From TrEMBL, chain A:
GO CC list: endoplasmic reticulum; Golgi apparatus; TRAPP complex
Gene3D superfamilies noted in UniProt: Trafficking protein particle complex subunit 3
Keywords, comma-separated and alphabetical: Endoplasmic reticulum, ER-Golgi transport, Golgi apparatus, Transport
GO biological process, one term: Golgi vesicle transport
Subcellular localization, as worded in the UniProt entry: Endoplasmic reticulum; Golgi apparatus, cis-Golgi network
Family statement drawn from the similarity comment of this UniProt entry: Belongs to the TRAPP small subunits family. BET3 subfamily.
Lineage: Eukaryota, Fungi, Dikarya, Ascomycota, Saccharomycotina
TM ranges: none
Designated name of the protein: Trafficking protein particle complex subunit BET3
Chief place of localization: endoplasmic reticulum
UniProtKB/TrEMBL annotation, chain B:
Native source species: Pichia kluyveri (Yeast)
GO biological process: endoplasmic reticulum to Golgi vesicle-mediated transport
Listed name of the protein: TRAPP subunit
Superkingdom, taxonomy of origin: Eukaryota
Taxonomic lineage from the root: Eukaryota, Fungi, Dikarya, Ascomycota, Saccharomycotina
SUPFAM superfamilies the UniProt entry points to: SNARE-like
Length: 216, 142
């Protein structure tokens, strides 16, 4: 956890972080075939949808929780590989998430934008999303089968499903383990026909390091 | 000139169908078969499957042009490796090559559809986006 990391400053600007991310991606990560990865995630989402009878709000929640559990563990890996030090402010955290975090695990660097005035909220915009490469959300239309009860069983995926919601969960899980309580949610997704894929991250509070009971 | 396109699944059940009007040779893109043919188009297209079955395992190719004809309407078939059939029924002549090109691009579209986790093999395709894309390549080649 972040406690074990020395709290010295990360010097230099974004360039330096980019280099670190680059270096880690090239030399220190194990890589798998991206089609295998994409299709594995796709079949997980597809299976969850089927099991939940295409109740997409439930599916979003399940994906989020899966991500949360992944994030809780992934942060350890992230810290041990990147050897990154404690961030000074939330802005730096955002840079690290994009330039090193996403680079390390997905080889993408989402663009950070739309900082709120109080610097507690920012937006991550994905130029490409490896999770969603072949995906087409169902857009079933039923001209002739309107009376058929089995038609349109796949519901309103384009209005309700956040296909890559697992990413939100991962971010939430990771940040929580370094004492940053955040809210993370999708605001747009190209799969739904939006112009870009974006996630918003909002810092709610900085959790205080808690001393375990009887450990004084 | 008009085209009737259908995709037949590996279990010989229909997956997709679309009426296509030509834009080539001063046509206006409106689908027009005479009524007596229009009512029979599914039967004509499907009857060619028998001929296909007789020759598909004796042949290396995927594209069978002019496999069957019925009162001036000819049938073209593209057979994929997984035994999905794309069939075109048309009254236009001398378009073998452009129909072949069309099938190749249609194959790409279909494969993309197949890779999507929300589409099940051999299930009917009802997607608006798929139709739009098919119409786009039809405009290009047919």
């Amino acid at each position: 956890m972040s406690k074990s990391v020395k709290s010295t400053k990360v010097k230099g600007g974004d360039k330096r972080l980019e280099q670190i991310g680059d270096d880690i991606w090239k030399n220190r990560t194990t890589k798998i075939n991206n089609e295998l990865f994409t299709m594995t995630y796709g079949s997980i989402v597809g299976q969850i949808c089927r099991e939940e009878n295409y109740n997409y709000n439930k599916v979003n929640e399940i994906l989020f929780n899966m991500g949360y559990n992944i994030g809780n563990r992934l942060i350890e890996e992230f810290l041990s590989i990147s050897l990154i030090e404690r961030c000074n402010n939330f802005k730096e955290t955002a840079e690290v998430i994009s330039k090193i975090g996403f680079r390390m695990f997905l080889n993408i660097s989402p663009i950070i934008s739309n900082w709120s005035i109080d610097e507690q909220t920012f937006q991550l915009t994905f130029e490409e999303n490896p999770l969603a490469e072949f995906v087409e959300l169902p857009d079933e239309y039923d001209e002739e089968e309107e009376n058929n009860s089995s038609s349109n069983i796949k519901g309103n995926a384009r209005g309700e499903l956040w296909y890559s919601n697992i990413l939100c969960g991962v971010l939430k899980g990771c940040l929580e383990m370094v004492q940053l309580e955040c809210e993370v949610w999708f605001v747009s997704d190209v799969l739904r026909g939006d112009d870009n894929t974006s996630i918003k991250v909002k810092l709610i509070s900085i959790l205080r390091d808690e001393i375990p009971v009887g450990d004084d | 000139m008009s085209y009737y396109l259908t995709i037949i699944g590996s279990n010989n059940a229909p997956v997709y169908e679309l009426d296509i009007g030509s834009y080539k040779q001063n046509s206006n893109g409106i689908f027009k078969f005479p009524d007596n043919i229009n009512n029979l188009k599914q039967f004509i297209a499907n009857s060619s499957l028998d001929i296909l079955e007789n020759i598909q395992f004796n042949s290396q190719q995927h594209y069978f042009n002019n496999i069957d004809s019925f009162y001036g309407y000819s049938t073209f078939i593209f057979l994929t490796q997984s035994n999905i059939k794309y069939i075109i029924l048309t009254n236009s002549k001398n378009l073998d090559e452009s129909i072949r090109q069309f099938f190749i691009e249609l194959n790409e579209l279909y494969l993309k559809k197949l890779l999507s986790p929300f589409y099940d093999y051999n299930s009917p395709i009802n997607s608006k986006f798929f139709t739009t894309r098919v119409k786009n390549i039809a405009k290009k080649y047919l």
